[in-house]
């Protein structure tokens, strides 16, 4: 990150050659011209006979790579958020063109030779690490093959990118809805939700599969048939359209891996991660499954016992009774009846604006960040909010909050890069693209579900990481180039502040009455926090197993739905309904491919990263926050992730904090994570 004495960069941040308001044709034309300029610039560097030096070769190459990355990010963002289909298509074309050029550069033998010849005798460690990663990326892409092999690689990579985009596009655009014939069947839902969903002229109520509609129904609707029908619509919202696309994606990636000499695409995808091998990932998942199996069963038995109070004849717990096998309807019932935590009442104290402002204040206290509304910033939709961010008076970057569902918009929750920053050149910009605030509810009165608040904090953890690490000297030292099975650790850690009663007490208030959230409710919320946790985590083990199974096979999966169900059933001893088709809308099968285990592996690390805060007895302890920002967030990827953690903790990370958290026990001492986890390719 640039120091306060660094030369000034543009403030407020700009979008450069590609603003958001371009018409599709102009967007394509400008991007094409920029990409051709980058291609020519890299060719000149690759063909040069000059001695390769840091200043004369690496510096101009990195500037070109940085420009290319930002064009790719711009296209990908518009593909996910633009309000009209033509602009989304143009964004997709720009992203695919930029990705193809990036693949060309990775396969450029002349560039590879010059990078290998680069004089690094006087270079600092972060520079050497960046170049090491650049060379490894080229080798993994097959740059050492002959011309024909490299041409085949390029075509396979381009086909994978196009097919992955089709998979994501279908998920975003194929939302479904349920027409409830009688409003009385929505009994149990909060009054503000019912007011926002009035019956239509025919007396029916339309409920969509978008998250602000879906979540409350699964948590509060007393009519099991409504929960069942909506869940199944949600699970098959991209089925059957995406099943052939998924088959094609799996086959292409298997061909790509085989072409490069890998046993499977999973072996290729995990090789440069902390875990290093699919075998290490499977051993890790097996360890977690063994830890979680018994407590998960106890949770599910508890839900079933509660269901029998309503339905004495019940012998099974359905997925719509405890959605995700560890949250949902009976989870909400137990929280209300046994812990006194009425999650429908809890949302009364969680208006969006107060949650957002509470987040801003927390970031000011922890990291010295100040958020100032940027009313003159160009945005892609009228509901998007933009904020300029400084740290102790020094410009840091810009963030965008796009939290309202729209047709065609990315329909999950993620932090998107808008612009990667570069020391002394450009400030970082990032966007939270989520779906928390219903489009038919004014922002000032919008309430958030408790679980959406946790997700908001999670994505904000990514945003803070992007901003604090956003001005590296080299692109390959940036946050986006860290091992991808560590990338979720800062966001998993930041969720903890959403669960912390002291933090919630700062902003949780009913704006209609001025009543602050009662202290006793916060205490009950803490007591109920562990409810369903093992079952929810076991679901994550199942999804991670599914992603590994799909990509460790030969690529020819004739029936993705059957394969999904088999993998699920190998982990969770309760089969899914046959109509359940989440494989078609499991977007991480496209982006994270074989390493969906990332969330669990990062969570193990994140629980240990909290240890210094716990030891000091305060999640807002300034010294712990300062060290966390300096040792984990700001460095980006100037060194391996395991080394970042070791410097922060003063030791190798361990499983102790995670295991105690899962089992609801006080944190105990235990040996550090096994020997493999002490290396830069850590595994269980």
Description of the molecule:
Among the domains are: 174-235, no CATH class; 238-340 and 528-595, Neurolysin, domain 3 (Orthogonal Bundle); 347-519, Neurolysin, domain 3. It is 54% helix and 6% strand. The chain has helices at 24-47, 54-81, 85-106, 109-116, 125-141, 147-173, 191-196, 211-220, 224-235, 242-259, 265-270, 278-310, 329-339, 343-346, 352-367, 450-468, 489-499, 501-507, 519-527, 533-552, 560-569, 588-591, 598-609, 611-616, 622-633, 641-649, 656-663; strands at 177-180, 205-208, 369-373, 385-391, 394-402, 414-419, 429-433. A 5-stranded mixed beta sheet has the order 3-4-5-7-6.
Brief synopsis:
With 684 residues, the chain is mainly alpha-helical.
What characteristics describe this protein?
disordered C terminus, single chain, disordered N terminus, two-stranded antiparallel ribbon, 684 residues, Neurolysin, domain 3
Query: Do you know the CATH topology of the domain at 347-519?
Result: Neurolysin, domain 3
Mean pLDDT: 93
Query: What does the radius of gyration come to?
Result: 25 Å
**Helix count?**
27
Count all strands and give the number. 7
Trace the largest sheet across and list its strands. Answer: 3-4-5-7-6
The low-confidence runs, each spanning 5 or more residues with pLDDT under 50, are: 1-7, 666-684
List the helices and strands and how they pair.
Elements: H1 24-47, H2 54-81, H3 85-106, H4 109-116, H5 125-141, H6 147-173, E1 177-180, H7 191-196, E2 205-208, H8 211-220, H9 224-235, H10 242-259, H11 265-270, H12 278-310, H13 329-339, H14 343-346, H15 352-367, E3 369-373, E4 385-391, E5 394-402, E6 414-419, E7 429-433, H16 450-468, H17 489-499, H18 501-507, H19 519-527, H20 533-552, H21 560-569, H22 588-591, H23 598-609, H24 611-616, H25 622-633, H26 641-649, H27 656-663
Parallel strand pairs: 5-7
Antiparallel strand pairs: 1-2, 3-4, 4-5, 6-7
């Amino acid at each position: 990150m640039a120091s306060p004495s660094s030369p000034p960069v543009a403030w407020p941040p700009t979008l450069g050659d590609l603003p958001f308001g371009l018409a599709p044709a102009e967007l394509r034309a400008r991007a094409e011209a920029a990409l051709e300029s980058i291609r020519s610039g890299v060719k000149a560097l690759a063909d040069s006979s000059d001695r390769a030096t840091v200043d004369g070769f690496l510096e101009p190459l990195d500037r070109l790579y940085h420009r290319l990355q930002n064009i790719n990010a711009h296209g990908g963002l518009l593909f996910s958020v633009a309000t009209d289909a033509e602009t989304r298509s143009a964004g997709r074309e720009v992203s695919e063109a930029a990705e193809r050029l990036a693949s060309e550069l990775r396969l450029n033998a002349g560039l590879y030779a010059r990078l290998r010849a680069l004089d690094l005798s006087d270079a600092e460690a972060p520079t050497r690490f960046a170049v090491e990663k650049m060379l490894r990326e080229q080798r993994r892409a097959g740059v050492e093959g002959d011309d024909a092999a490299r041409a085949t690689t390029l075509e396979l990579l381009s086909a994978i990118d196009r097919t992955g985009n089709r998979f994501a596009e279908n998920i975003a655009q194929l939302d479904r809805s349920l027409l409830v014939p009688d409003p009385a069947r929505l009994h149990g839902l909060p009054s503000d939700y019912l007011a926002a969903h009035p019956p239509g002229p025919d007396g029916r109520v339309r409920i969509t599969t978008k998250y602000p509609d879906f979540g409350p129904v699964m948590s509060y609707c007393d009519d099991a048939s409504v929960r069942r029908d909506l869940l199944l619509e949600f699970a098959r919202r991209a089925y059957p359209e995406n099943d052939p696309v998924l088959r094609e994606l799996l086959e292409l990636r298997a061909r790509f891996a085989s072409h490069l000499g890998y046993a499977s695409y999973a072996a290729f995808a995990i090789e440069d991660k902390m875990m290093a091998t699919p075998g290490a990932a499977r051993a890790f998942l097996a360890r977690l499954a063994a830890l979680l199996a018994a407590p998960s069963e106890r949770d599910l038995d508890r839900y079933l016992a509660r269901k029998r109070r309503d339905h004495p004849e019940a012998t099974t717990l359905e997925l719509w009774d405890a959605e995700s096998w560890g949250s949902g309807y009976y989870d909400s019932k137990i929280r209300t009846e046994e812990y006194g935590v009425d999650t429908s009442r809890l949302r009364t104290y969680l208006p969006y604006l107060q949650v957002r402002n509470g987040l801003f204040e927390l970031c000011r206290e922890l990291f010295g960040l100040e958020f100032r509304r940027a009313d003159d910033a160009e945005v892609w939709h009228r509901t998007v909010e933009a904020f300029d961010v400084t740290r102790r008076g020094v410009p840091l970057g810009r963030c965008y909050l796009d939290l309202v569902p729209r047709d065609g918009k990315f329909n999950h929750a993620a932090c998107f890069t808008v612009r990667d920053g570069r020391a002394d050149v450009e400030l970082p910009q990032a966007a939270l693209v989520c779906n928390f605030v219903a489009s038919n509810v004014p922002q000032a009165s919008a309430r958030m579900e408790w679980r959406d608040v946790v997700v908001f904090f999670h994505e904000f953890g990514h945003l803070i990481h992007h901003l604090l690490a956003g001005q590296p000297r080299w692109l390959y030292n940036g946050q986006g180039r860290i091992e991808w099975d560590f990338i979720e650790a800062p966001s998993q850690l930041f969720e903890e502040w959403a669960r912390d009663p002291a933090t919630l007490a700062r902003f949780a208030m009913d704006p209609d009455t001025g009543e602050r959230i009662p202290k006793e409710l916060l205490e009950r919320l803490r007591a109920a926090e562990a409810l369903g946790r093992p079952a929810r985590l076991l679901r994550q083990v199942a999804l991670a197993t599914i992603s590994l199974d799909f990509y460790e096979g030969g690529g020819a999966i004739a029936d993705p739905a059957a394969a999904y169900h088999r993998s699920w059933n190998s982990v969770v001893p309760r089969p899914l309904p046959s109509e359940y088709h989440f494989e078609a809308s499991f977007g991480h099968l496209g982006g994270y491919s074989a390493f969906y285990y990332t969330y669990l592996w990062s969570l193990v690390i994140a629980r240990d990263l909290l240890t210094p805060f716990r030891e000091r007895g305060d999640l807002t302890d300034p010294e712990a926050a300062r060290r966390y920002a300096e040792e984990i967030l700001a460095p980006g990827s100037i060194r391996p992730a395991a080394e970042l953690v070791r410097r922060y903790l003063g030791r190798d990370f361990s499983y102790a904090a995670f295991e105690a958290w899962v089992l609801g026990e006080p944190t105990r001492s235990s040996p550090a994570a096994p020997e493999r986890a002490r290396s830069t390719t850590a595994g269980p």
